[in-house]
Amino acid sequence: MAAVREEVTVRSGDDGPGIPVRELMRRLLALAWRHRRVAWPAVLATVVFQVFTLAGLAGQGLAIDVIREKLDPGAPAAAWPLGLRPPSEWGLAATVGVVAAAVLVLSAAAGVARFFIRVCDERFVQACVVDLRQRLYEKLQRLPFGFFDTIDTGQVINRVTGDSQQVRAFIQGIMIRAGIAAITLAIFLGYMISTHPLLTLACAVVYPLQVAVMTRYSRVTKPRYLEQSKQADVMVKALQESIAGVRVVRVFGRERERQGLFVRLCERLRDQAMDIAGTQSRHMPFVGASNIVAQATLLGLGGLLVIKGPAEGGIALGTFWVFRGLLERLASQADAIVSIIGETPEALAGAERVFKLLDLPVIADGTEELETGAGGPGVPGVPGVRGVRGAEIEFRDVTFGYDPAKPVLHGVSFRVRAGETVAIVGPTGSGKTTLLSLIARFYDPQAGRVLIDGRDVRTIRVADLRRAIGMVFQEPFLFSNTVAANVAFGRPEADEEEIRRATDIAAASGFIDELPEGLRTIIGERGVSLSGGQRQRLTIARALLVDPRVLIFDDATGSIDALTESEIQAAMEEVMRGRTAFVVAHRLSTLRRADRILVLEKGRIIDSGSHEELMSRAGHYRAAALIQLALDEAEEKPGQARGRLGQREAS
Amino acid sequence: MSTLPSNLLVAAPPKPDEEREPEHRPLQWKLVRRLWSYSFRYKRLQILVTLQGAGMAALLTLTPLIVTETIRWTIEQPERWRELTGRPAEHGLAVGAGAAVIVAVIYYVFFGWRVRSVNRLTEQVVVDLRRDLHAHVLSLDMSFFDRTKLGRILSRGTSDISAMRAAIAQVIPRTLIHLLMMVLFFGAMVLYDWVLALMLLATAPVVVWLNEKLGARMEHAYRVVQESYSRLTSTIAETVAGIRVTQGFARERVNAGMFRELLQHHSDNNMRAARIHGFYIPMFDLASQTVAVVIIGAGAARIAGGHMSVADLIGFMIYSAGFFGSAVALADLYGTTLQAMAGAERFFALMDTKAAIETPLSARAEGDEGGPGALAARAGTRGARVEFRDVTFGYDAARPVLHGVSFAVEPGATAALVGHTGSGKSSIVSLVCRLYEFQRGEILIDGVDIRAVPPWMVRRGMAIVSQDNFLFDGTVMDNIRFGKPGASDEEVIAACEALGCREIIEGLAGGMGKVVGERGASLSLGQRQLVCFARAMLADPRILILDEATSAVDTYTEHLIQSALERLMAGRTSLVVAHRLSTIRHADEILVLDHGKVIERGSHGQLMIAGGAYARLYDEFVRLSSKGRGERLAE
After folding, report:
1. Can you give the pLDDT at residue B415?
2. How far apart are CA A176 and CA A28, in angstroms?
3. pLDDT score for B486
4. From A14-18, A479-483, B504-508, the region with the lowest mean pLDDT
5. Rounded distance, CA B608 to CA B597, Å?
6. Which residues does B508 contact at the CB level (< 8 Å), separation at least 6?
7. Which of the listed residues A23, A442, A458, A528 has the most CB atoms within 10 Å of its CB?
8. How far is CA A317 from CA A34, A299, B80, B202, in A?
9. Is the pLDDT of residue A626 over 80?
10. What ipTM was estimated for this complex?
11. What angle do CA B444, B450, B456 make, to 5 degrees?
12. Separation of alpha carbons A148 and A153, rounded Å
């Protein structure tokens, strides 16, 4: 049996040009620089910590020298720092005791400094990350919908959380650690060189080598890690689809094929990991091995110098001890640099995605104000009051395509008077939703103009424009929150009375009162689940509460069954009164009530007029309406059916 | 009048049954053993990795020994080296340094080998874990998917397995190395001076106590961080899902303010964790420094008393530092272990979820593809007989949604299930597919109780067109082929042809090779339905389960769908959750459901004459869908 020849891909949405590394670095540094005031304490704490660490180590070396001096007559005299030599009549216990106490104090001080390093680091990192995430979130909210069509939801979430975490890793794991490494190297190497340059050089030569080897490693493995993470995405997606489509998989009995596909993807991931591990096994051990070589060098060369003795240009055994300790600590700094190099590509890749997102173009905001509320008398924003004002909408020769090369709308022109109800009909893909998206400026047309009250929508502040428009989408999307919060989404400051009035008009109050906690009931994923019709009525109430001058029903009854539609029909009619309304609809009942119908086909308006006008002339509209009627005809009138059957039984 | 809370972005508080992070608790050996059992499947590799770990520990013990002994023989007692070898002390230094270089070379080769073995073991175990997870999830029954969110299952396969990978790749091998190193180092310390060694051992309880005390606090702090992080994530998820609404209602500024608060809260939690962590690291440092100081002091006294030499002291100091280093490393590993075990706990809890109806993948292997037992695929008539006898069922056994439902659908007939939302229509078709276990009664297919045969046998010869028209990301061709994996391209095209929708599907941009996107997003609703029909057509089922989509499509597409549907149902036994008038009208039998009971049954004509619930429902339907026409006729 042939395997399911199914391949899985992930839409990650970034097809844009890459950002050069230099530019990325510049922007990351700029981000850090903005928060530099928080960073200085961390630097200071690091310097203090490493100086104290060094001093503590030196104290240990001194103790060794003191012991040798007191017990071995041949040993050189211990070199006390800063002329602090205690009286020579002090015994071994007293002298070593003083040194030991000093070491303890220094360690305690180093410990305090270390605490501050951690806290200051975190404060700096948090400042940067909060700043970045906030900007990302604000950007995300303003992106045109087209972006979300090209990217899986999981990927978007990843941008704001995962990728910004990568930026955090860059700042914390790379910038800060590099800073600490630089400070540490400066202090330790400074001390070592001032003590014995030749020995320092001989021992420390391995560290640049380590860095070179690991740089090569990360360069070699970078493309393979990228490949691995792509494969991991594919694997996760396959798992996700097996779960989301479990009904289909099960009833068709395709468990084994799905399992086979999934295991193949897992094994591919494993093989990729093993491939990387092979390279890893040739590079990683170099670090540890060369550290041992550094110790060997110290042992050979340093040993010679100790035998020579400090008096003749050599060093004391205590100094040997300090060098040994410093080499260990330098090794851990080299480790840090190595892992910095290893992590940089991944962190930069994350940062690149973050900055790409931040760089995406958003719709340019206009400057002019627009009257938003339909303004019935009484409490501002109270919907459904007679005499409300609609807005005049005009399309002038509008051409638009999500991809400018493939227009969806071709030179569309029409004008809708304030307060008119316009129905838009046309086959799937004819551009109905697209047309409506242009009114609220979710996109800008490539040619032509969209006007509201005679003014180009591009000149108007986007927030004003959208507040003047109430939208009911095809999918009745509600947030996981209370009913009240959902209805008041467009006007969070609305009080309960206003919310009530909106739900009354939208015919939603009935079922809301039956909910366990009424308006305060939490709905959605985490709460009570509502039927399609109930959800749609809430979205109508939501649109109402902003008291819009223009109402847009984008196939609002499309996702609910005919029975539920009847529940909503009346609510829709009530709220459209006095406002300019656009309705995408298929059912004749809705079309008949419209003042005007625009017939859209392949992005062009091919006909317009009232239902009666359109029916009176041959055209697409009449043809479509006739099919609809034919479909209805098949249902027959209940009375007739009953009658005929009755006759048959009688005969 | 009070203003209601409209904190839309602050996700609602979790329900009690919502999954919580496991509380701080000691290591559970049962889980550890279970995880281990995965890696012990690869016995030889496991033994190899263990031996390599022991070798690493030995190598790492060797280096300080070389340094100490070289100092002893060349610096402290050069005359003894001369006595022994007749060469100067400098020669001894060269020997020591040379020995260390040899250790370095061995280390390089050995470590590389070990990296490869550990990776091989780890990656293989990860494949096994994922494979078992996927197979297990596929074997669970629908009630599991009803109550478990997709994201939660996914994170079992991603972050939880990653945590377990860390346990296998790091914890197990490294714990071994560090434990062994501590033993070896302690042995070396005893060798250099047993009194000091015992003193050092006495400090161990203090360190353990500190670790316990601070470790628990840190873990708590990080859990709080994790919680606020997942709130951030879920907020973003909702923002993305509701982006149209947000933009349409110009809510960006309000949302941004709320998000800022969440960010600040998360940031504060991070700071708190950092403070605890910042307190924790130096405490360990300080403890080991204190020990070093004690060693210096006591060591001086021991040397003065002639019990040890300066070289002994140096060796002791190196080993004691290493000893503490290993202890710290073990503590870190313990943290990783706890994380891994939290992951393992969630993972194995899922693996332990029992299916009410088990569909093990292995069982299907034997009698696959319409073997003799394949219930619905039995030869003879093209359709199968489906019968319900007094079936009572509830997703929760205490609250039945079907009460003693009985009916029969003859071979080749179409039964339409009609009723309001929640009347039990979908439950009936789910039971036929054996997706749920029912509590009472019998369901028979061709006279065989479906509980008497394995579920795969029940489902062979069935096809489903679900309400959501689920498609897998991949090409249209692949999606249709899902109905019959061995089918050739020609068979797939023939199935479309038979439905009368070949032109539509081939007319897509990209034709049969068009990639449908996540859940078929790049196809329109109507196109998605047609692909689902073709998929079912290709499977050539005897029983067709159809959960009609409620959404209206444009008139032309509707027409196409209806004719395709007729062809698909022809000659098959069909159970339809009906939303289309035409489907209902053409059904051989209509079952009218109300609150889980069949209240009326019969053909359209019979039911209309009866003038009961169906007639009322039908009037409602017709009034709605042809109101426009009615008015026109009245003119």
Report:
1. 92
2. 12
3. 84
4. A14-18
5. 19
6. B476, B514, B523, B527
7. A442
8. 48, 11, 19, 29
9. no
10. 0.80
11. 135
12. 8
Taking contacts as CB-CB distances below 8 angstroms, the residues of chain A near B296 are: 60, 63, 96, 99-100, 103
**Among A386, A322, A266, which Cα is nearest to A61's?**
A322
SS3 B590: strand
Residue with the larger pLDDT of the pair B87 and B375: B87
How high does pLDDT run on average in chain B? 81
**Alpha-carbon separation of residue B458 from A400, B439, B443, B469, B499 (angstroms):** 52, 18, 11, 22, 26
Q: What percent of chain B has pLDDT over 70?
A: 88
Report the pLDDT value the prediction gives residue A302, as an integer from 0 to 100: 92
Phi-psi region of B595 (alpha: psi -120 to 50; beta: other; left: phi over 0): left
Task: Output the six-digit token pair for B622.
Answer: 């017709």
Grouping H, G, I as helix, E, B as strand and the rest as coil, residue A198 is: helix
Number of Cβ atoms within 10 Å of the Cβ of A177: 18
> How far is residue A455 from each of residues A107, A369, A480, A581, measured CA to CA in Å?
73, 11, 37, 18
Query: How many cross-chain Cβ pairs, A to B, lie less than 8 Å apart?
Result: 573
- Considering only CA atoms, which of B262, B569, B188, B632 is closest in space to residue B415? B569
| Low-confidence winner among A390-399, A412-421, B420-429 (lowest mean pLDDT) | B420-429
A567 touches chain B (CB under 8 A): no
Average pLDDT of span A421-439: 85
Asked if the model's pLDDT at residue A648 lies above 50, the reply is no
**A642: pLDDT strictly greater than 80:** no
Q: For residue A192, which of A337, A58, A76, A83 has the smallest C-alpha distance?
A: A58
CB B573 within 8 A of CB B407: no
Strands A580-584, A550-553: pairing is: parallel
Instruction: Tell me: pLDDT of A225 over 70.
Output: yes
In B, which residues are within 8 Å of A292 by CB distance?
63, 100-101, 103-104, 107
Of the candidates B469, B339, B304, which has an alpha carbon nearest to the alpha carbon of residue B27?
A: B339
| Residue A86, token pair as written in the block | 């205690």
Q: Is A156 on the interface with B (CB under 8 A)?
A: yes
Look at residue B511 and tell me whether its pLDDT is greater than 60.
yes
Helices (H) and strands (E) in chain B, counts: 24, 10
- Structure confidence by residue, pLDDT tens digits, B102-125: 999 999 999 999 999 999 999 999
Q: Which is more confident, A5 or B487?
A: B487
Phi, psi of B445 (to 5 degrees): -115, 120
**For A107, which of B101, B108, B286 is closest by C-beta distance?**
B286
Residues in A closer than 8 angstroms to B611, CB to CB, are 642
Most distant CA atoms of chain B, gap in Å: 129
Structure tokens at B77: 């007692």
Amino acid at A215: T
Mean pLDDT score, B206-223: 78
Q: Give the pair of three-digit tokens for residue B482.
A: 């899902």
Contacting B residues, span 167-226, partner chain A, CB-CB under 8 Å:
none
Query: Residues 369-398, chain B: which have Cβ within 8 Å of A?
Result: 369
Give the model confidence (pLDDT) of B139-154 as tens digits.
887 878 877 777 778 8
The SS3 assignment for A591 reads: helix
Its sign, for the CA torsion B569, B574, B576, B580, is: positive
- What pLDDT was estimated at residue B45? 92
d(CA A221, CA B108): 20
Whether the CB-CB separation of A65 and A318 falls below 8 Å is answered with: yes
Cα-based angle B327, B333, B336 (whole degrees, multiple of 5): 155
**Residue B351 class from Cβ within 10 Å (0-12 exposed, 13-18 middle, 19+ buried)?**
middle
Residue A31 is encoded by which pair of tokens?
């981000």
